[in-house]
Design goal:
The chain contains 20 helices and three strands. By secondary structure, the protein is mostly helical. The structure holds zinc ion.
Length: 499
């Protein structure tokens, strides 16, 4: 069908423009000189504008009409129909947003990201406040253009997690909170407490870089189709055979970089293994950010923070790190790596308390977008909620409201993806264990490739053929639910803490 081919050509151009933006962003976060920021802001803005023009090209509407009224429409494959559906969904949403607003938002988020960095360094929210106000204002306008009748948070959530809304999330998160707090308390009250001095030892950055490469390769991240660099805030970006991950090294805590590499490698493996038969088509993208986070959290926690994995890896780890960890023993070491304790910092949080950090952000972000709280009230509200949910006292903005980059980039609606990722990862794990009964043995032998192959086949290769809730149902046979996640946490942490 000619019109289908023409539609796919337009779509391919947009996808290529997005992949250019991704590499420009990566460059800005890694190697670009600081003075280049205003120029980069303009460069990214023009790319975003071009992309927006492509995905809202009036020809798309015409082509969609032609395709759907064509007698041969029913002969299109499911994959082709999905492409048509995804292009139409995106078109109908984005055509409502003026291109000028997209360009302004791109410029302001670049400036806000730089301002956030300075503010975080100085632990001073007031530096970032005016930039965040601008980004928030423009983001709310964007949401209002897309759907003025919907709560802005839901507009953003629907882009990242098609099929979900805040009503669904609120009930999911409330159930989760009720189950997580008792597990956290049992860990905190257990007599068997972790000795964190086993991990907080000086470990040279060069050694940590070797560890990063070793662990990324071990789990199947392809370094010939990617690379590992250093940034303040680790992330993954790129497309198919050029998917880059980043990490942040901390001299006195190797685990910070080690687990961020595993996390980002999980994202990288997903991106590198999307279905290459469909490259440059919308169906070849990730299903959702929650599915993305299920892959990163799977490698970081299910594998990386397990006793089985360290049964295999500890010897190799000792070899790679010289004398530093020569005296550590398996079980106390794993207990320290998986230690449950409320922290101020989300990315340093353990598996049990992690979702509480997300729930704090979810509640604040919805209120912020609905103007129930103002930007200048954020530090106070943040600190109150952290005290209430996690019992931690925030002493300055850097360890409080300024710790995450998301809002600076206009990434509203993103935080729930992390918790959805935890929940989905546990559902995938339960199904994987059913189909690979020797799952634990494989990890104990350091054989990650059959596990990665399972994910490649069941999840990665389906790419964006299904929306996230449908994908979870298809892979696991069950609707998304928290019970596998809770069972996983109870079993794992009762063993580690002996309750
Ligand atoms: Zn992630």
């Amino acid at each position: 069908m000619q019109s289908y081919k023409r539609l796919m050509r337009l779509s391919e151009e947009a996808i290529l423009l997005q992949s250019i933006s991704a590499i420009m962003d990566w460059d800005m976060e890694t190697y670009m000189p600081a003075k280049g920021v205003p120029l980069r802001g303009k460069q990214i803005a023009i790319l975003e504008t071009l992309n927006h023009e492509r995905i809202t090209d009036p020809q798309i509407e015409k082509l969609l009409d032609e395709i759907k009224s064509d007698n041969d429409y029913s002969k299109l494959s499911d994959v082709q129909k999905r492409n048509v559906y995804l292009i139409e969904r995106n078109y109908l949403r984005e055509v409502k947003v003026p291109t000028e607003l997209i360009s302004k938002l791109a410029k302001e988020t670049t400036l806000a990201t730089e301002s956030w960095k300075k503010a975080k360094k100085d632990a001073n929210f007031s530096i970032f406040q005016p930039n965040l106000e601008k980004v928030l204002e423009l983001s709310k306008k964007r949401a209002a253009h897309i759907d003025p009748d919907k709560e802005p948070f839901d507009v953003f959530l629907d882009i990242l997690e098609p099929g979900m809304d805040s009503k669904y999330l609120t009930s999911l998160f409330n159930d989760l909170k009720k189950q997580l707090i008792p597990i956290m308390n049992k860990c905190l009250e257990a007599s068997n407490q972790p000795d964190l001095s086993l991990i907080h030892r000086q470990c040279p950055i060069e050694t940590q870089q070797k560890l990063a490469i070793d662990i990324a390769k071990l789990v199947g991240y392809d370094l010939e189709a990617g690379r590992i660099d250093e940034t303040e805030h680790p992330f993954t970006t790129g497309y198919f055979n050029d998917v880059r991950i980043t990490t942040h090294y901390s001299l006195n805590d190797f685990s910070s970089s080690f687990f961020s590499v595993l996390h980002e490698a999980g994202h990288g493996i997903y991106e590198q293994n999307l279905n290459s038969d469909w490259i440059y088509q919308p169906v070849a993208e990730a299903s959702s950010m929650g599915i993305h986070e299920s892959q990163s959290r799977f490698f970081e926690n299910v594998i990386g923070r397990s006793l089985e994995f360290w049964r295999f890896y500890l010897l190799r780890f000792k070899d790679l790190t010289g004398k530093t960890f020569a005296d550590v023993e398996l079980e106390p070491f794993v207990q320290a790596l998986a230690a449950v304790r409320p922290t101020k910092i989300r990315v340093a949080a353990d598996e049990v308390t992690y979702s509480l950090h997300i729930i704090v952000r979810y509640e604040i972000e919805r209120d912020l977008l609905m103007e129930k709280i103002a930007v200048n009230e954020l530090p106070v509200v943040w600190n109150q909620k952290m005290e209430e949910y996690l019992g931690v006292t925030i002493k300055n903005d850097a360890e409080g409201v300024l710790q995450d980059i998301h809002w600076a980039g206009g990434g509203f609606g993103y935080f729930p993806s992390y918790t959805l990722g935890n929940i989905i990862a546990a559902q995938f794990l339960a199904e994987m264990k059913r189909l690979l009964p020797n799952f634990s043995d494989l990890i104990e032998q350091g054989k990650i490739s059959p596990i990665k192959a399972w994910l490649n086949e069941k999840v990665h290769s389906l790419s964006n053929l299904y929306d996230p809730l449908d994908l979870v149902k298809r892979v696991t046979g069950k609707a998304l639910n928290i019970s596998d996640h809770i069972n996983y946490l109870e079993k794992k942490y009762s063993e580690i803490y002996g309750f």
